[in-house]
Amino acid sequence: MSLAIKNGAIFFQGRFIHKEILIGDDGRISKIGNSLVGDESIDASNLLVLPGLIDPHVHLREPGATEKEDFNTGGRAAIAGGFTTVMDMPNNTIPTTTKARYEEKKQLAKKALCDVIVHFGATPDNFDEVKKADPPSMKLYMGITTGHMVITDKATIEKHFALFPKDRPIVVHAADNDPNETKNLAATYDNTEFALALAKKHSRRLHLAHASTGKEITMAKAVKSATVEVAPHYLFLSSKDAESLGATTYGKVYPPLRSEQQRIVLWKYLEQADCIATDHAPHTIEDKENSAAGFPGLETSLSLMLDACDKGFTDKIWVVERMSERVADAFNLKDRGRLGVGLRGDITIVDPKLTWKVSGSGLETKCKWSPFEGRELKGKTVTVVKGGELIYLEGEFQK
Fold first, then answer.
1. pTM: predicted TM-score of the whole model, two decimal places
2. Residue 27 CA from chain centroid, whole number
3. Catalytic position from the list 88, 279, 307, 351
4. Residues 321 and 366 in one domain
5. pLDDT of amino acid 186
6. What are phi and psi of 236, to 5 degrees?
7. Taking the mean position of all CA atoms in its chain, how far away is CA 54?
8. What is the 3-state secondary structure of 149-213?
9. Is the CB of residue 363 less than 8 Å from the CB of residue 77?
10. Using alpha carbons only, how large is the chain's radius of gyration in Å?
11. Which of 116, 175, 186, 296 has its CA 20 to 30 A from that of 57?
């Protein structure tokens, strides 16, 4: 059945306009205009109508650690946060580093309410598996993180850069996690510089994951073929917050939260960033109390950014672009990330004035906690349509 979205302010070609959207039986946008009629309709009065958001960096834990999250709970968290597409990282307990595991993971991901695109993982010796899998993107770890996929040999790193198709992004984890910030930042900058130099040498696409400092953004933007993402927790939390949360427990994340000075500087360089990415990394409360690193973020990311807009730190147009079309551009997703005739009917409808308080127990993520517990935020996803199908209406799942 066709679906009309009426009376809202839609984000179209870089601005908000008062138009209506009609999604056809094929799940794609058939018309943008006025007085459109569908078999069903959604009243978006006083709401913002956005392209379905895209998160390029999540860890949904399946297969191998479904006690933390799985594609069902992670997909529900994504939809509740406004994301119709997420891109899942390969460093599972069972890593996505062979064609067989890649195909298995794509099948498992079909249970999610959102679309899941799977990043393939690079290892020191899986060049043949990369070629057989032929993935649209690859993740390469230069620094220690969750999992055992780090590549330190520079010749091996360069071989991946040379062999992987140049028009497809290699996502690079360049961050170092030494507990001493001076040391980990020096190593992070060295890794970043090396990866960017390889991108230039081989004329290839590179995407820098979870930049946590302004310098990383500056470095990435000096290379034409590079894009860079920032996770909201580096914008809204600092090492002071890590201490109050528990530096080795609930405040532990990779890369580590930076000093308050670094956090303030990051905001000054934020406008140059290409994407906002959650780095949604759920762990059980028991795991966090045993020093697991990572924060859940799918259900708070958009609201944190909208709340920052309300406070004058950034603006809605910038945020929407970095959570939809700029992500689509970075990862060659031609059919989503924008509102336009012929594109997927993936729609996120937001109430910019809705105020809510973060409560881990009320989140869809299986881990049921948040580093932003108790924080009051202004702006929230209320309705989500994916491929023309109404998935989430006024804060309630429809399936």
1. 0.97
2. 23
3. 279
4. no
5. 97
6. -115, -5
7. 6
8. CECCCHHHHHHHHHHCCCCCCEEEECCCCCCCHHHHHHHHHHHHHHHHHHHHHCCCCEEEEEECC
9. yes
10. 20
11. 186
CA distances from 80 to 40, 300, 326, 352, 362 (A): 22, 9, 21, 15, 11
Which pLDDT belongs to residue 332? Answer: 98
Whole-number mean pLDDT of the chain?
Answer: 97
* Domain hosting residue 362, numbered range: 3-49+343-397
Q: Are residues 45 and 57 in the same domain?
A: no
Other CB atoms within a 10 A radius of the CB of residue 271 amount to 11
Tell me the CATH number at 31.
2.30.40.10
User: Would you state the pLDDT for residue 144?
Assistant: 80
Tokens of 87: 């891109």
- The residue among 382, 325, 346 whose CA lies nearest residue 15 is 325
Determine, yes or no, domain membership for 354.
yes
Q: Looking at the structure, tell me whether residues 368 and 290 fall in a common domain.
A: no
* 130 and 274 co-located in one domain: yes
Residue 217: name the closest of 225, 207, 228 by CA. 228
269 lies in a domain? yes
Annotated active-site residue 279? The verdict is yes
